[in-house]
Design brief:
Number of strands: 13
Strand order of the largest sheet: 2-1-3-12-4-13
Order of helices and strands: HEHHEHEHEEEHEEEEHHEEHHE
Strand content: 15-25%
Low-confidence stretches: 1-27
Number of domains: 2
Helix content: 25-40%
Shape: globular
Mean pLDDT: 89
Distance between the termini: 73 Å
CATH class of the largest domain: Alpha Beta
CATH topology of the largest domain: D-Maltodextrin-Binding Protein, domain 2
Structural class: alpha/beta
CATH architecture of the largest domain: 3-Layer(aba) Sandwich
């Protein structure tokens, strides 16, 4: 009798377990999970606005936050993500050149984050001292972009025609003898107490409570070509879940959120 009871108990547990698995599979079949990598501000904040919209389409949006610009592309290529939303086109193009094994493409442009020049030590660039220290991003596209903005501000001159590929070695006129500190983009805002000026990406500026339209001495204007995009693996552009993601991100609801939340520090590109 004891043996019979043990067998019956084991059988009951097995049936319960199988029933549970069946329920989970059914839930998984009814709801498709979409994992999107993003930096926290403003990308993850924008994605949060469309979670309910995608839920109505049977899609569970899972936002995976990153603090760097490298892992989101590697993880996307390795199928740990379905898409990412953190970078502009020049950065992605350069990343793919440097990592030929990475097969990712632009699925849609969503917004622009104008880069700005900030300081805790001076209020106007006219006050910049001779020999001042300048922090800029060290990745190729954002570094070149920062140098172009410094040139636009009139405090240095670059070699003709160098464009976004500019490096500090392309500075041909440096009347204030500026000294450059090249750092990972996410770290640049944290140098503000130590350097004279810093050229900072808007998303990282906002993460340290800087208000770009108020605190930046000089900013790119809305004509900037650095549109932030949704990137996906090549061939996934037309996946229904990706198309639903893009449609939700390009909605009037998101445009209104960007306008009201960021007040010009982030500009919708649709």
């Amino acid at each position: 009798m004891k043996k019979l009871l043990v067998v019956l108990a084991a059988l009951a547990v097995a049936i319960f377990a199988l029933a549970g698995c069946g329920g989970n599979n059914q839930a998984a079949n009814n709801t498709k999970v979409l994992k999107v990598g993003a930096t926290s501000v403003p990308h993850a904040e924008i994605l949060e606005q469309i979670k309910d919209d995608l839920k109505k389409d049977g899609i569970e949006l899972q936002i995976v936050e990153y603090s760097d610009y490298i892992q989101p592309n590697l993880n996307l290529n390795d199928k740990e993500l379905d898409a990412n939303y953190f970078q502009h086109i020049p950065y992605m193009d350069n990343f793919v050149k440097e990592h030929p094994e990475v097969k990712i493409v632009n699925a849609a442009g969503i917004h622009i984050e104008p880069m700005g020049i900030y300081s805790k030590k001076i209020q106007k660039l006219d006050s910049l001292a001779n020999g001042a220290t300048v922090a800029i991003p060290n990745d190729p596209t954002n570094g070149g972009r920062a140098l172009l903005l410094l040139q636009k501000a009139g405090i240095l001159k670059l070699k003709d025609g160098v464009g976004v590929a500019a490096t500090v070695h392309d500075v041909v006129d440096n009347p204030k003898n500026l000294k450059f500190q090249e750092l990972e983009a996410a770290q640049v805002p944290r140098t503000l107490e130590d350097v004279d000026i810093a050229v900072i990406n808007t998303n990282f500026a906002m993460q340290v409570n800087l208000v770009p339209t108020k605190d930046a001495m000089v900013m790119e204007d809305a004509s900037s070509p650095y549109v932030n995009i949704v990137a996906v693996r090549a061939g996934d552009e037309n996946r229904p879940e990706i198309q639903a993601l893009i449609k939700a991100l390009k909605s009037e609801k998101v445009k209104k959120f960007i306008e009201e939340k960021y007040k010009g520090a982030v500009v919708a590109a649709f």
